[in-house]
Amino acid sequence: MTSRPLAGACLCLSIGAPLGIAAVWSADALLGFAFFYPLLIAVVSILGGLYYWFHWERHWAWGLDVQPPELKGNPLITILISCHNQAEQGPDTVLSALDQHYLNIEVIAIDDGSTDGTGRRLDALAAVHERLRVVHLDRHQGKAMALRMGALAARSDYLVCIDGDALLDRNAASFLVAPLLACPRVGAVTGNPRIRTRSTLIGRIQVGECSSIAGLIKRTQRVYGQVFTVSGVVSAFRRSALDRVGYWSLDTVAEDIDISWKLQRDHWSIFYEPRALCWIPMPETIRGLWRQRLRRAQGGAEVFLSNVPAIWSWRYRRLWPMVLEYGVSSVWAFALLLAVVLWTIGLFTALPSRLHIDTPLPPAFTGMVLVMACLLQFALSIFIDQRYEHGLARSLYWAVWYPLAYWVVHLLTTLCSFPAVLLKRCRPRARRESPDRGIKAPTS
Description:
Elements: H1 17-25, H2 27-55, E1 77-83, H3 90-98, E2 105-112, H4 118-126, E3 132-137, H5 143-153, E4 158-163, E5 167-168, H6 172-182, E6 186-195, H7 201-224, E7 234-238, H8 239-245, H9 255-265, E8 269-280, H10 286-307, H11 320-346, H12 364-385, H13 395-399, H14 402-423
């Protein structure tokens, strides 16, 4: 699940490099960019979410009437589960994958060099369930390598990939694979992760973020045709498409972002399927949240900087809006930092009038407009997503803390990640330990 939490959108067609240059020349333009850009993309995400709902989503059955799609030809589906030191939650994840309503599946669990007994527990399950196979890696190789090994061992061309601590909804595999069968040019389908760790304020805020930010982002991107990233915790891939692009890269900390760009550069489409639910734990501490978002920001910067030089030919024109949005989003972080720096300098010395900033905070009216846009965005997303999660409206109370908690995190992680990526001379094999997944045991 990548979401860069600015105001909950991923499309910007109206603001470009000229405005970023003007922001450096004029304090008024700088503040205008810093405070009205989030408003613009919030409006765009609202419009994109509404279009997706009116055009597709409102026609779907929901509640007790939801039925999984029929998969023509009854194809075999392979579910890949990458596990590293997940002896406690890994077995539940495997059982949820085996419990799909669609029966023609095989499950491959990849033990990525675990040292906590994960491999033994997976082997015990494999002895009982004939549709489960376990692949053991001798040492920790990273998620990208684990998925590669699983894909090579798979017997199907349709791969559903989930994390080792996620619980897959019983209809999720069917919903994820249906677009791959219906549309030959679809290379991947991203699902709808739902948060199940809610014992702290940070955990509860993420419930609202998952729907209002990530959900509207994916819907808006699906409308204009390019998705920045599939969800790393629940996605499906066409193996033949993965084979064309060389599978997951081993040297990036965000393999989900990287594979999304690789597929779309090869002219494969990526769809979003909100009915493919997967229940996941998320960080519930400041430290865990920071590490997670810094990794995402660094991975996004790596993919962005490595792809930008190569996509300016006409054949890659469909990627330009996505590149523009990410680039301007990053410029926004540095613009806000510049506003704070100029304000701080102005406290101690006189600046030219055009560079003087009375306060980096938005004026009362601007701040109220941003708050109203944010609340409207949350309300719309809850209205749309309530069919997938009962009681979601209660998260609106906690979501009001989202701008303070996550815009600041986004600002700081962007400022830290870009210099780190630019100064890195080589990119070694990407490996990471299991992240913070909640303080209390997550509910099912």
